[in-house]
From TrEMBL:
The keyword Transmembrane does not apply. InterPro entries: aa-tRNA-synth_II (IPR006195), aa-tRNA-synth_II/BPL/LPL (IPR045864), Fdx_antiC-bd (IPR005121), Fdx_antiC-bd_sf (IPR036690), Phe-tRNA-synth_IIc_mito (IPR004530), Phenylalanyl-tRNA_Synthase (IPR002319). PANTHER family: PHENYLALANINE--TRNA LIGASE, MITOCHONDRIAL, PHENYLALANYL-TRNA SYNTHETASE. This is phenylalanine--tRNA ligase. It catalyses: tRNA(Phe) + L-phenylalanine + ATP = L-phenylalanyl-tRNA(Phe) + AMP + diphosphate + H(+).
Amino acid sequence: MLIPRSSSCCARALRLSTHHHAIHMAVPSLLSSFCHLFPRGHGFKPFPQFLSSSCSASPLSSLSSVPSPKPNKRVKTLVAAALLEIGGVKIAKDDVVRESDPTNNVPDNIFSKIGLQLHRRDTHPIGILKNAIYDYFDTNYASKFVKFDDLCPIVSVQQNFDEVLVPADHVSRSYNDTYYVNADTVLRCHTSAHQAELLREGHSHFLVTGDVYRRDSIDSTHYPVFHQMEGVRIFSPDEWKDSGTDATSYAAMDLKKCLEGLARHLFGAVEMRWVDTYFPFTNPSFELEIYFQENWMEVLGCGVTEQDILTRNGRKDSVAWAFGLGLERLAMVLFDIPDIRLFWSTDQRFTSQFSEGKLGVKFKPFSKFPPCYKDISFWISDSFTENNLCEVVRGVAGDLVEEVKLIDNFTNKKGMTSQCYRITYRSMERSLTDEEINQLQWNVREAVQGKLYVTLR
Ligand code: DAH
């Protein structure tokens, strides 16, 4: 999304800076090789099953009133299922993955993650961290925050972007950055997608935790599925009227106090600083950074909710704050987890190291298996993007790919551009054989040539 690669690791925030804008706008072909037609204006219809009942058009109305089931054991059986159910919404694989549909860019391996809900497993680092944050809010706000962690990740474009004021030309809306189920429906790319609807339902204090999906490049801190938690608190006029400050300053002060407390709850007595930033949905907007292991690390994005969001959702006279944080990023630091793919491992040597309620137990790598590097070079076409390449590589090699890195780029006199990428293969769980890697690389080359319209060199 807008948070390209820089230092921000897996807390890729949905912000807009001219710098990021420039980078992403250099990739104008929204539809690149996965989608050859411009999706809007073609009259594609959203799936009725998502938009009618609970999932997309009104995904929360039924979900929030139904008590969430306890953290699920059923999760395991969902892995390869062709029909999932999340928060009462039935999701068929054929409706989410449709290779022949130019308005759809969801691959199989992404579908297979829907429903796994790592954040609802009490013995998984992501679930342990979620629960630790819950504890902070329950203790400090007398359980006033209502918690949602089972909202369907398939949402409308309206929920994901329009309702949180993401501009129409914002790059995060592109097919290069977001997984589209069809022209009107996406896999949410942030938990902010649920803000507006929960406000309309009348909630004034809430936390939303969920899996979010973004097309991106590949390295040890980026994975196309990760988890976020969103928090929103609304104040009514009588809460700030005697404070001696205006509503916005009152909310900003409260927000900072709340989040500094949360950072101390998670990290102990750390040094912190606030950095001004930009998000479409808040004004003013801030990032909280903590000084950790000799670096300033961005922990979360937040701000005072744009008044327009409150007005449109029946809260005209209120003021509110909101924040969003990436759980993997924090969990990697708190549990010493070196590679983001490990969160998806079902290897007992990983899963058995964590237990319910134990935040910050340090992960002991069971072994370090050797990496294997393979380069691939090609002449690119106009529609080529690195995200599309990564999608193809991930489609072939799955979690055996650790990194895809551009190592050479030149344009010849005829104006043709050649790029060379180094692919690092490494399993988290075992040694890979030469034969296996050669086969993978062969399959990657075939797939790259077949799907990306590049000319291999
Ligand atoms: N939605 C943002 C992202 O995905 C994170 C965020 C920032 C959420 C500021 C908020 C907020 O609610 O106020 O990067």
